[in-house]
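Field guide to reading this record: the first block holds the primary sequence, the second block holds the structure written as discrete tokens, and the final block holds curator observations. Each block starts with its own label. This record concerns WD repeat-containing protein 52, catalogued under organism Cathartes aura.

BLOCK 1 — SEQUENCE
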Amino acid sequence: HFSACKLGHTAKKLNLLTLYTFSCKYLYIAIDLMLSWKEAMLTRFLPIFLRTEWGNLLLWEGGLIKVELCQAGHKPCHSGPVSQLVLDEGELVTVGKDGFIRVWNFETIDAADSVDDTGLLEVEPMNELHVGRNVSLSFMAKVHDSGQPVWYAQDSNGAIWKLDLTFSNMTREPECLYTFHSGRIEAMSVSPITYLMATTALDRSVRIYDFISNSQLSEIKFKQGGTALTWAPCAVNPKGGVIAVGFEDGVVRIIEVYDPKGLPVLAGQTNTENAEINLKQAFKPHATAVTALAYERNGDVLATGSKDKTVFFFAVEDEYEPIGFICVPGPVRALQWSPPSHVKSTLLILCENGFALQVPAPIPEEQDTASTYQIKNLPTQYFHFYSIKSRIKVKNSPLEEEIALREKEKQEKEKAKLEWIKQQQEMGKEIEEEEPEEEPKEEPLPPLYVPEEPSPILCGFYSAPGKFWLSLGGYDSGFLYHCAFSSNDHQEDPENRQDEPFEVIPIEDTDNNPIHQISFCTSRLLMFCGMQNGALRVYPLQDKDLSVNTLKEYWSFNVHDNDYGQIQGICSSYDDRFLITSGGDGNIFTFNILSPEDVHKELKAKIPSPRSGLEKEKATEDIEDPNAYNIEEVKQKKEYERIMKEAEEKKNKKREELIALRHEFLFLLQKNQELPKHMQLHREVYL
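BLOCK 2 — STRUCTURE
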């Protein structure tokens, strides 16, 4: 990790301090600023070199390409893009995505010229260094440590390297200083009993961090990238060591983290690792990426959601057993079980395309899974969000005044007409039907805008039984919408529904910067919001309910990258002492939610002890083939094979019956032939 600058924001009731971030981006910036003014000025008078995507170097002169440089045999300078050029002490250093650093004679290259029509000139590097396998170098910088030059290189596959480019007999091997996720962090969760957190990303790794000591404890890699993760509650595992992870190929893996020092030590061996990760179970409920995982409040059921528009339920036991799945109207965005304060245990399902659903926890004993795992009789309530933002924008605007004025004029005309009719009736005059007067043409009012494609649901949470808050992106961003399920609407086609929220709270400066993540502290007196622009907002709530007044004031902390640092996850530690955020920029920040007096108390993360007999267990069989059948496909394949087997058995039985009848018929024919001529049956009788 690398320490980031402490935030300058302070608050009377809340003291948030950035502790650390796992990323090399800040090292990149810090070292880049170490270049002296003199070095920067020198670069203005050098020939222009251009690195290419195919690995060669282009030498420019007078706005034209003078020559293209390659190695002997027209071999490219690098096997892939050249990410950086550095001029160091009269030598040209090239940094490649292929993991090589090559040093070239600058004078030779400066004087280079094309020798044939190909425009290529073959040159050989003076020295080269291969940093390592699966290394993709993107940036390198030089610093002086005790008078000795040291190079630091940024590996876009998730590492920082310390390099020695002296190329002498005493040259040290490349040293990997730190490793971290490459790319954005897809999911994060914290331990329910200690100061540990788990993260996963599309780099195919799952990592365990101790956010008290700011260190990575363990890492495990799989064949596919991780897309969802949740730490199992204590109701599932009292030791707090079980984690469920979803992957982009639809596989869910149950892993357990433990302290290897708790295992029996074999003769001649020692357990020195801080923590280890063990694969406990792997199953594939979905055909595409898993996007959400949620344990039921009692820990009896695990729900998994996916982009394949299904939600699968598993009975949580020593081995997770499938209960069944339901189909939903859109790709699943998030899953949330109702809190213990609700009488019934229900699951809130949020879909990307504007649908929200509520279903009860299925009972395993009531499900018929003989031929399919699909649950077709699970009571389901639907909410299909219908945009009302244009109506909200009309309020307190000139358009609203124009609508009110026209309505008032219309009412006054109707009132005047009724009074005239009444006067005529009192005078005893007959009222003849008059041709309606031509009303002056009014300029038509602009129609209320409703987006053709529903705005995506970004996040949401329960507020009461059957009620929930939503944050949306796209056109409908800028508000929190309070919605409710109707009690008698499950018969209507969900696609034809147009459900409107019953309460709306405007959120400041979120029209183009919607809320992507919402979390609460245990007391629910603080609401944490992760924004699209990487900022963290903290709303102090007067009570546990949201209102326009309670969301007027907030603290804002710009922590993640403004352009691509969208906050992917927000979690508070089990004791509400710390807050952790992870973002699309690959960074993780922890914040202290303690008073200054509590900050100095010594805290320590405790790694869960291993299960009894873990060392004797065989390695769990993993699902490595991304095209492997999912659970339902396996069931359907078995059902198809069963039907085909039954059909084949039925055919074989009929064949045996036909063979028996044929033998009986031939026997009767023979008997008929043995009879006297006058007693034999003619052939026409039995054909």
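BLOCK 3 — OBSERVATIONS
Confidence is low (pLDDT under 50) at residues 1-46.
The radius of gyration is 36 Å.
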